[in-house]
Specification:
about 30% helix, 8-stranded mixed β-sheet, globular, alpha+beta
Length: about 400
Amino acid sequence: MTNNPTPCDFLIIGAGIIGTQLALTLKRRHPDAHIILIEKEAYPGLHASGRNSGVLHAGFYYSKDSLKAKFSKLGNQALTRFCLERNLPINQCGKLVVARHQQDLTGLQELYRRGQENDIELQLITEQDAKEIEPYAKTYQQALFSPTTSSVDPKIIMTELLHDLQTENIALHCQELFLKREKHLIRTNRACYAPGYVINTAGLYADKIAKQFGFASHYEILPFKGLYLYKKKTQEKLRVHIYPVPDLNYPFLGVHFTLNTQGDVKIGPTAIPAFWREHYEGMHNFKLSETMEIVTRQLGLLMGANFNFRQLALSELKKYNRQTLVTHAAELAHGVQLNDFIQWGKPGIRAQLIDTRHKKLEMDFVVEHDEHSLHVLNAVSPAFTCSLPFAEHLADLILV
């Protein structure tokens, strides 16, 4: 490792969708800036950015005062335009949110109200209307139809953004791991940098890095593992995504049917508490110190939190059983058979931020910054959808 620090105007840690979009945004605002984007993996987007569902959300789940509400509609429009202009795969299928029983109707009305507040194109429809849109859908009396919800291929979008990085002459250094901050220097496993400004978009490790800069003092990331079950390819096809009315006390949307860009179907996801930050499969990437830290945090939440962590954990762990997951999905659509759902997909990890002072899940994006650095601490779903306007927002926060 060289001891001669490399100067740069911006050093961005983490080349997921947020870090990549922000690098491009900064370069377009500051064409002469020297921007370096470091990524610990061999290729960008191997974590949440490449493992998410690919759904472009419309933005009606979120309260009007939230960053998620502010950027979902704009982000949906921006990525839809991005795909259409570049002839990238996109399935503009729309989404139904269905009611499973009488109690869901209140939540359905709340989602509709939020959609109106956020100026989202959204239709409150009858049970018969829902069946005309999607014959397989089950709903109780009413449903919501979101025509602007769609699906894209996250990996293809990430590949396209990497081409843009090259076009803009932004330096991308893969297999380069942030190690530590030393006053105004940043050390990695390969180099030492003297950046004018540091940007932390490190996902699952964003809180760890932020603490070295004096931020995230009362925040910790608690990882949740998400898994989908894939439907066998058959002639019967769903026309739209089908989602339940979610519990708005949690940042998870419940088991749902998702279509990919080819119209293939998967159900899920789970939101299983993980035992280390990159707890994807088996003992891969196991770190004892992380496990001890995370289990201690989970035990603390079991003992007392302002949400029912015990109930959440138990209900989500049950979904790891294929029968249970399919049973949940069968509440939303007709003709759901256990034998049609055999193959588990590649797991993803949600880097969910916890406020340790109040023992609560952070529902919105969380960013902390000063004149030297900026840290994106909570950028969970719909961060992929929001990535372009969110990057513009982050660029506005940077004091240069």
